[in-house]
TrEMBL record:
This is GTP 3',8-cyclase. GTP binds at R13, R63, T94, K155, R254, I255, R256. Keywords: 4Fe-4S, GTP-binding, Iron, Iron-sulfur, Lyase, Metal-binding, Molybdenum cofactor biosynthesis, Nucleotide-binding, S-adenosyl-L-methionine. The gene is moaA. The lineage of its organism: Bacteria, Bacillati, Bacillota, Clostridia, Eubacteriales. SMART domains: Elp3.
Length: 319
């Protein structure tokens, strides 16, 4: 579907839960979050209704996120049922990888196409500190597992935080020499817990590229959020996601669905539309979703405001 600014919207990111088994310093409060009532969260059957309506409008790609999507039981069933919906060509998840190793094969068999794994350090002690208790070895094994079963390319999402992990940038880049992974450096955004770290922790993609001239730029993909590079003869790639220093709003092809059943046409806008009351009427649900897509804002103003306009934290929207 084409929105009001001529962009082709074919990608729906769905946050399945606000909950997570980690407490990353830029994302989740240390004390965790209040548990929502069951009736306030979309059931898998309701999610499938929305995906079906979205597919009618031209949505082809689905990404399940959170919170942490793999803490939910029967996510394999959800992926399998999603794969049966006509028009859906690509199903991915974003995960911290802690629970992925044991279920990666089952998820692939169910129809999972791709996986993004959040990993902000390669050092065991630092990982425990950033995640407030996580075990990096589980994540590293999950990456190897996905590679071994052909669930590739594995994309590794690394949020750049000056003074925290900027000393490991070369280590992450060097991962791509021997592994068929795409390491994606993401600029820290002033949203949720990230606001507390932003002033001292922000580091632009340009700063990194200036230090690593050996990275060779690749032809850009117009619908990709990442600018891609690679080392000579490397098996993998390096990507930069730059929502502040080089925002990509004019090429944005996505909308988001929260676990509370609200559509967010833009990550950094306060504008949301609840779909809860339309779930039992496919025609009306499709019509409301169509209007939401068409009215997607032209752009965010992060670079000016230095603060997200969203009233939700990142774990409530989907990373």
């Amino acid at each position: 579907m084409i929105d009001g600014y001529g962009r082709s919207i074919d990608y729906l990111r769905i946050s399945l839960t606000d909950r997570c088994n980690l407490r990353c310093v830029y994302c989740m409060p240390e004390e965790g979050i209040d548990k929502k009532a069951h009736e306030d969260i979309l059931r898998f059957e309701e999610i499938l209704k929305i995906v079906k309506a979205a597919s009618i409008l031209g949505i082809k790609k689905i990404r399940y996120t959170g919170g942490e999507p793999l803490i939910l039981r029967n996510i394999g069933w959800l992926i399998k049922e999603t794969s049966k919906i006509p028009g859906i060509e690509d199903i991915a998840i974003t995960t911290n990888g802690i629970l992925l190793e044991d279920i990666a094969e089952d998820l692939k068999e169910a129809g999972l196409t791709r996986v993004n794994i959040s990993l902000d350090t390669l050092k065991e002690d630092k990982y425990t500190a950033i995640t407030r208790g996580g075990d990096i070895n589980k994540v590293l094994r999950a990456i190897q597992k996905c590679i071994s079963i052909g669930l590739t390319p594995v994309k590794i999402n690394t949020v750049l935080i000056k003074g925290t992990n900027d000393d490991e940038i070369s280590d992450f880049i060097n991962l791509t020499r021997e592994l068929p992974v795409e390491v994606r450096f993401i600029e820290l955004m002033p949203i949720g817990q990230g606001e507390k770290l932003y002033e001292d922790g922000f580091m632009s993609s340009g700063e990194v590229l200036a230090k690593f001239p050996e990275l060779i730029p690749l032809e850009s993909n117009k619908v990709s959020t990442a600018s891609l590079y690679k080392l000579k003869e490397a098996k993998g790639k390096v990507g930069f996601i730059s929502p502040l220093s080089c925002k990509f709003c004019s090429q944005c092809n996505r909308i988001r669905l929260t676990s509370a059943a609200t559509i967010k046409p833009c990550l950094h806008s306060a504008k949301e539309l609840s779909l809860k009351s339309f779930l039992d009427n496919e025609v009306l649900l499709t019509s409301v979703l169509k209007e939401s897509i068409y009215s997607k804002p032209s752009q965010h103003n992060l670079e000016c405001d230095k603060k997200s306009g969203s009233e939700r934290a990142m774990y409530q929207i989907g990373g």
